[in-house]
From TrEMBL:
It comes from the Bacteria. InterPro entries: Peroxiredoxin_BCP/PrxQ (IPR050924), Redoxin (IPR013740), Thioredoxin-like_sf (IPR036249), Thioredoxin_domain (IPR013766). This is Peroxiredoxin. GO terms for cellular component: cytoplasm. Residues 22-187 form the Thioredoxin domain. Keywords: Antioxidant, Disulfide bond, Oxidoreductase, Peroxidase, Redox-active center. CDD domains: PRX_BCP.
Length: 188
């Protein structure tokens, strides 16, 4: 495994800072986001159930991590999280997820390289202009002059947020947590 595909020991866990309490039940605004598969996706207009895992940024092989990345609670782990959703993709679909997306503020060309390198069976969405982040007040943080999204997972049903996972830690267990939630919801 490369340095980006595994998590180092001793990463600080993020704490719930209350920055996501307003999200459950929120109807999403119409915002069109470019996807790595060439589509433009409006999360508010999707039918059925969508899972959107939001992550700060994916590391690029050969490039250094942002300053103090491993010390920022919840920052490290975007690639392991993406691989987790890749590995759980079919199970998530079987549990009722009609759509699965990753979302960050990275530009689409960077995300496209990541999606291809990691063989993701779902598209990544770019909120590079922070339109969705600002419209629904997603939790954010700053490092090295970049304004990045905190790790959060949204379950969206017919264009409204029905469940939120926040904070997400460890990130490589995120897909399994979502799967357990979907399977539990289906059995009720």
């Amino acid at each position: 495994m490369t340095q980006f595909q595994s998590l180092p020991d001793g990463l600080p866990a993020p704490e719930d800072d209350g920055a996501a309490v307003h999200l459950p039940g929120l109807e999403l605004p119409i915002i069109r986001l470019p996807a790595t598969d060439g589509r433009v996706v409006d999360l508010s207009g999707l039918s059925g159930l969508a899972v959107v895992y939001v992550y700060p940024r994916t590391g690029v092989p050969g490039e250094p991590l942002p300053t103090g990345w491993d010390e920022i609670p919840g920052a490290r782990g975007c690639t392991p999280q993406a691989c987790s959703f890749r590995d759980h993709f079919e199970l998530l679909r079987e549990a009722g997820a009609d759509h699965v997306f990753g979302l960050s503020v990275q530009e689409t060309p960077v995300q496209k390289e990541v999606a291809e390198r990691l063989h993701l069976p779902f598209p990544l969405l770019s909120d590079a202009r922070h339109e969705l982040a600002h419209a629904i007040r997603l939790p954010m943080f700053e490092v090295d002059g970049m304004r990045l999204l905190k790790r959060i997972t949204l379950v969206i049903t017919e264009g409204a947020i029905s469940h939120v996972f926040y904070p997400v830690f460890p990130p490589d267990k995120s897909a399994a947590d979502v799967l357990a939630h979907l399977q539990g919801a289906a059995s009720r």
